[in-house]
UniProtKB/TrEMBL annotation:
It comes from Rasiella rasia. This is EI24 domain-containing protein. InterPro entries: CysZ-like (IPR050480), CysZ/EI24 (IPR059112). It is found in: Membrane. The chain crosses the membrane at residues 27-49, 69-90, 144-170, 209-232.
């Protein structure tokens, strides 16, 4: 598991070079706009609703003394709660809606790595969008199921350190899942893809760790998160597919799965 996590992280090395060499930046314009607008909307909601959520949390404090302090803390907690849930929604929204744009990018990278003879494209843009919505809706529900109990436990001092790490790992896994599926959709069915990612969960987590970390970089992280994460996940997923299906490389002497 740990070894595969590092493989998922290491796959980010050389992504800028690969994107430039294949001229892929133009394909990211609309997904970047979607990413930016979604993040902006979540930020506005966090700012607007933090007081309301904070007032609800503050009701658990029945005592008069310290009520103002606890209310101030509650407002902050409300904002953090919205941002945490917002990050989950943000991730799955952009991964699902960007599917028709990211799948062709993944295909071009796979074509570069494996050659045209081993690149499959039996889906339409509508089919890719529907699969993206289906996969990410499923992942969203699963992530909420695991994350909400951990968020509630995170209000307990000391324990919140452990829950924060677990929440980050869970978010990373599902982020990596979504990125890997842009490649998997050309080779596996819906159920086969979920099994594939589950069997390679370390790679998904490694890819998602960088994905999630980039979201904490103001503006620039939101712009670059999809181009870099999708490129990294494609190179690593193609390698895994090659191992599982033993696909031969074309012109292997001139190409590498770790560009």
């Amino acid at each position: 598991m740990i070894k595969n996590i590092f493989k998922g992280i290491k796959a980010y090395a050389g992504t800028f070079k690969l994107i430039n060499n294949l001229g892929l930046w133009k394909y990211f314009a609309i997904p970047i706009a979607i990413s930016f607008l979604t993040a902006l909307l979540i930020g506005v909601l966090a700012w607007a609703l933090s007081d309301s959520i904070g007032s609800i949390i503050a009701k658990v404090w029945f005592w008069e003394w310290g009520s103002e302090t606890f209310r101030a803390i509650s407002d902050v907690m409300g904002g953090i709660l919205i941002v945490a849930l917002g990050l989950i929604l943000y991730k799955h929204i952009i991964l699902a809606v960007s599917a028709p744009f990211m799948s062709p990018v993944s295909e071009k990278i796979e074509h570069h790595l494996l050659g045209a003879a081993h690149t499959h494209r039996n889906t339409t843009n509508a089919a890719q969008l529907w699969r993206g919505v289906r996969i990410n809706t499923r992942n969203l529900l699963m992530e909420f199921m695991f994350t909400i109990p951990l968020l509630l436990l995170s209000f307990i001092p000391v324990l919140n350190i452990v829950t924060s790490i677990l929440i980050f790992i869970i978010q990373s896994y599902y982020a990596g899942f979504g990125n890997m599926d842009y490649t998997l959709e050309r080779h596996y069915t819906y159920s086969e893809s979920t099994k594939f990612v589950r069997n390679n969960s370390g790679v998904a987590i490694g890819n998602g760790i960088i994905f999630m970390a980039m979201l904490f970089i103001p503006v620039l992280g939101i712009i670059l998160v999809l181009p870099l994460s999708v490129t990294a996940s494609t190179t690593e997923t193609v390698r895994l597919i090659k191992e599982n299906k033993k696909l031969p490389l074309e012109n292997a002497s001139n190409k590498s799965l770790h560009v």
